[in-house]
Specification:
- The complex is a heterodimer of chains A (82) and B (147).
- Chain A is α+β, with helices and mostly antiparallel strands.
- Chain A has helices at 9-14, 29-39, 41-49; strands at 2-6, 17-20, 53-56, 59-61, 72-76.
- In chain A, helix 2 (29-39) crosses helix 3 (41-49).
- The longest helix of chain B has 17 residues, at 100-116.
- The chains are: A alpha+beta (82), B alpha+beta (147).
- At the A-B interface, helix 1 of A face strand 3, helix 3 and strand 7 of B.
């Protein structure tokens, strides 16, 4: 199982975290994201309007990063502090 | 030093402590950001979301890079998370250097980073509802000045 974490506007829509089962041992972060988009049209339309970063186990990675069982996958919308 | 504060902080106490511990400094620059009312939007508060652990890790990494880049003696960032009311401090940045230009520049550099590249998310809460805020084009231009 993989824990997917959401922040900012994405957390308002999806909640803070979801647990998902890996579809295969070659599933990437981008593929997991696409599965979540297919399940939720609002999530899909939010991602169409914004550019997210992905962090796996607290490290920023590309969408091509292969995910392992037990990983934390964080979906990070544009940052805005200060 | 980075701290994410979930309660109001006293900027004067933080600056006093920073001044005491910045041994050898000849200049200390500080910036305190407050939640402003923003007339047209009737802002009443901000809500700041963070990714516990990751947010501190990333801001600390940039603090260390800033210390090397500007040859600082020390630097401090304290940022509020959670609900912050209008008029309250939301962020304080302090930088200590041998000379003033490095301290000023590093403080500016860190604030530009916090506005658009630190893992924080800001929601504006006002009379007319709530809205997540993304960095403005000016914020991105400000950050690009350092590249």
């Amino acid at each position: 199982m993989v824990t997917v974490l959401f922040f900012g506007p994405l957390a308002d829509l999806m909640g803070r975290e979801r647990t998902v089962a890996l579809a295969s041992d070659r599933e990437t972060a981008g593929m997991i994201l696409r599965r979540l988009e297919d399940e939720n049209e609002l999530f899909q339309s939010m991602l169409a309007k914004t550019r997210v970063k992905i962090a796996v186990n607290n490290q920023i990675v590309s969408a091509a990063c292969v995910i392992s069982d037990g990983d934390d996958v964080a979906i990070l919308p544009p940052f805005s502090g200060g | 030093m980075i701290d994410l504060a979930d309660r109001a902080f006293d900027p004067h106490a933080l600056v006093s402590r920073f001044v005491r511990t910045a041994q050898g400094a000849g200049a200390i620059a500080t910036f305190i950001g407050l939640v402003r009312k923003d007339g047209a939007q009737h802002v009443e508060a901000l809500y700041l979301d963070c990714f516990p652990g990751f947010t501190e890790q990333e801001i600390d990494r940039t603090i260390q890079r800033t210390i090397r880049k500007f040859e600082l003696i020390d630097a401090m960032v304290v940022h509020r998370v959670g609900m912050v009311s209008v008029g309250e401090p939301v962020v304080i940045v302090a930088t200590a250097a041998e000379h003033r230009r490095a301290a000023f520049a590093a403080c500016d550099f860190l604030m530009d980073y916090l506005k658009s590249e630190a893992p924080l998310w800001k929601k504006q809460i006002g009379r007319d509802g709530e809205q997540w805020i993304e960095p403005t084009s000016q914020d991105y231009e400000d950050r690009a000045r350092w590249r």
